[in-house]
Q: What sequence folds into this?
């Protein structure tokens, strides 16, 4: 630990890092806070859309909240409102810290881009609710939104790439920044490709559906996953004080993801009107992706071996640890919905939603929460107020998202197997819908839990950003043994 | 300005969070365990199978569906739907009629017993097991007014609605065959042709009354009975 031996060097180093924190303070807090608002909205819409699946007659007279508009609004708020904003905040801070570079100029440009991003998705999601949806999954917002969103994203990606370029980069030392730099480049590529193909090329026919499915997979695998892994690779060594176990595994995991991530997606339409090689390549890659997933998981496992006590005390590590546990889970779910054997039953069922939720919420968001719990005290100059709020946020999130994923998979398997079962060839489709209702009830309850946890999180974050946190030099730690709601001044695990 | 405000110059307070951080460290070079290598090889084998092992279409550019195509002439429906192993027409009508009966069951109940005083029973009813012509006419055009079934009087307000307009003659025939041969009933099959014949002869728009139907009480619609009770030899399928 550095504070054990205070030399002029460490003092200079502390001042330098504090200066870096201060330079990115405005944009990062802006992104986190707005992201948390969108997350709150997204989870409430999640509850509503699950309720509409259970009781379609609920608030029947109001066309704005029919299921077909609610579900896209829910996913878009989650992905663009919360996901991308939280990711950009985490990326910017880690990139600045890891490259040792201050954000030199353009801070107000970044805030302006953040404002435009929020205004654009506000109108975009209102557009979805007012029946102006494009009906393309994850791209439902009206098509005028995409150039604006792209520009806003590039406004953030550019300074990050510059920071990486200016940094001193010793061999093998930059594991988390590889991923973040990758995400800076991959998201614009995916976003441009999908939008140009779907909005500008005429007459795509069935291929359009394939490109759309590719877009969803690629955003998950080449944007949300790298940011989540980047955060995990940064914070696990930072908090446990244990170096990443294996540079080779880290580089194998990164290049595996970089090479395979963009090839998958079309297997969503296996058996559909696409040439068979497209789903075949997608299914092949989806299963092959278990290799980089396994390498990263193994590396985290080797790094945290024997360090699990800090998972109990550090809020950051606890969120990151469980987020990282969900990464292999999301890999397995992707493989399950993608192979020709299991995918034939699971395609077009609730299992698809389970995959989106396990990757965007279970994996990415949990890692982002962990990062936020670490970053915000450094930017706002005060400590998290309440252990209880953090603990409730954690447990309600974990139980909520696990329920959604398990229910989605089981319901998906049942729906798909029943639909494919020749013995049920004369069954009414409504019977299958009614059979899956209990799982949707569970989903609604789980989203209720998640909404509650996010209300706590939003409240906590608002207080922190307003500078109303605890005035203390000691971090806010979760301490299990004493059932002690007070923060403990043990110092090392924050 | 409070001393702990983030813009304060109290560096010691300001950097509290920064000072307790641990230093970044270079990754180590722990070897990957052997079992992990084997596991990942298995993953690669499973993945490779998606590219066209076994019966899957995979990377063949001439193939449009990765799933094995049924051989031509195969009917994947159970019973083959007309192939050599087809259900005989009577069994098929019973199976399909059971599904169609969901509409009737709302009033006449799943066990065909009806509800005393409100909806007459179908089980053991002379209206069902008697002449086919009256039965077809009831379902095709509806029935209203007081009627007597199994010695009990019924007079449901509004009577029974006509179902003929909304159903194909095949569906109607299936349901009628089903009710004539369930819950202990036994009666000849009613075929699509019989229903069609009644439809062609009778185009009335109003519901029947019991008196109107008296002449048809014991009349059977002529026609071949391909299977089931009372099968006519001419239409029976050739022995297998």
A:
């Amino acid at each position: 630990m550095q504070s054990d031996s205070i030399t002029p060097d460490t003092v200079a180093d502390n001042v330098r890092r504090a200066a870096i924190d201060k330079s990115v303070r405005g944009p990062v807090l802006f992104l986190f806070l707005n992201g948390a608002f969108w997350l709150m909205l997204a989870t409430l819409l999640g509850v509503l859309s699950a309720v509409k699946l259970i009781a379609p007659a609920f608030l029947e007279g109001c066309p704005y909240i029919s299921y077909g508009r609610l579900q896209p609004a829910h996913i878009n708020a989650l992905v663009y409102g919360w996901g991308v904003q939280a990711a950009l905040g985490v990326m910017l801070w880690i990139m600045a810290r890891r490259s040792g570079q201050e954000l030199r100029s353009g801070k107000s440009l970044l805030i302006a881009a953040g404002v435009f991003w929020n205004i654009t998705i506000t109108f975009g999601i209102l557009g979805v609710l007012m029946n102006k949806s494009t009906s393309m999954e994850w791209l439902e917002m009206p098509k005028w939104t995409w150039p604006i969103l792209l520009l806003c994203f590039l406004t953030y990606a550019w300074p990050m790439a510059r920071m990486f370029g200016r940094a001193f980069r010793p061999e093998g030392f930059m594991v988390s920044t590889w991923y973040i730099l990758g995400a800076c480049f991959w998201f614009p590529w995916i976003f441009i490709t999908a939008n140009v193909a779907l909005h500008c090329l005429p007459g795509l026919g069935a291929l359009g559906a394939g490109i759309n499915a590719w877009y969803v997979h690629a955003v998950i695998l080449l944007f949300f996953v790298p940011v989540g892994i980047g955060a995990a690779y940064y914070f696990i060594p930072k908090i446990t004080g244990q170096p990443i176990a294996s540079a080779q595994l880290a580089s194998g995991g990164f290049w595996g993801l970089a090479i395979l991530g963009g090839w998958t997606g079309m297997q969503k339409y296996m058996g559909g009107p696409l040439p068979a090689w497209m789903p075949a390549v997608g299914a092949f890659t989806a299963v092959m992706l278990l290799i980089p997933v396994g390498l990263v998981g193994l590396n985290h496992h080797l790094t945290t071996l024997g360090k699990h006590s800090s998972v109990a005390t550090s809020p950051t590590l606890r969120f990151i640890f469980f987020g990282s546990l969900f990464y292999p889970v999301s890999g397995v779910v992707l493989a399950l919905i993608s192979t020709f054997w299991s995918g034939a039953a699971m395609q077009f069922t609730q299992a698809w939603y389970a995959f989106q939720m396990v990757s965007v919420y279970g994996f990415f968001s949990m890692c982002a929460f962990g990062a936020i719990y670490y970053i915000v005290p450094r930017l706002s100059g005060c400590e998290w107020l309440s252990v209880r709020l953090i603990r409730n946020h954690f447990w309600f999130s974990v139980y909520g998202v696990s329920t959604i994923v398990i229910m989605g998979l089981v319901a998906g398997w049942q729906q798909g197997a029943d639909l494919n079962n020749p013995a049920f060839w004369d069954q009414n489709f409504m019977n299958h819908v009614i059979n899956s209702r209990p799982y949707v009830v569970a989903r609604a309850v789980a989203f209720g839990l998640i909404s509650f946890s996010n209300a706590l999180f939003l409240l906590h974050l608002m207080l922190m950003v307003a500078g109303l946190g605890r005035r203390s030099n000691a971090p806010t730690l979760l301490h299990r043994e004493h059932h002690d709601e007070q923060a403990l001044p043990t110092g090392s695990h924050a | 300005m409070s001393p702990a405000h983030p813009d304060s110059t109290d560096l010691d307070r300001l950097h509290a969070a920064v000072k307790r951080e641990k230093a970044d460290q270079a990754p180590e070079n722990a070897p990957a365990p052997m079992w992990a290598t084997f596991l990942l090889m298995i993953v690669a084998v499973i993945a490779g199978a998606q590219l066209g092992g076994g019966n899957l279409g995979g990377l063949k550019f001439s193939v449009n569906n990765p799933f094995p195509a049924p051989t031509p002439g195969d009917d994947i429906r159970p019973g083959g739907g007309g192939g050599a192993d087809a259900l005989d027409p009577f069994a098929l009508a019973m199976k399909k009629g059971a599904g169609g009966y969901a509409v009737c069951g709302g009033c006449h109940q799943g066990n065909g017993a009806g509800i005393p005083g409100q909806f007459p029973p179908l089980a053991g009813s002379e209206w069902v097991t008697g002449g086919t012509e009256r039965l077809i006419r009831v379902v095709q055009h509806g029935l209203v007014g007081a009627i007597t079934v199994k010695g009990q009087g019924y007079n449901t307000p509004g009577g029974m609605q006509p179902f003929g307009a909304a159903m194909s003659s095949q569906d109607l025939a299936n349901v009628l065959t089903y009710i004539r041969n369930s819950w202990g009933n036994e009666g000849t099959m009613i075929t699509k042709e019989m229903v069609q014949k009644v439809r062609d002869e009778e185009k009335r728009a109003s519901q029947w009354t019991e008196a109107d139907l008296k002449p048809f009480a014991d009349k059977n619609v002529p026609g071949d009975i391909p299977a089931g009770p009372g099968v006519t030899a001419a239409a029976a399928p050739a022995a297998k």
Residues 341 and 429 of chain A are 23 Å apart (CA to CA). Chain A touches chain B through 73 residues (CB under 8 Å).
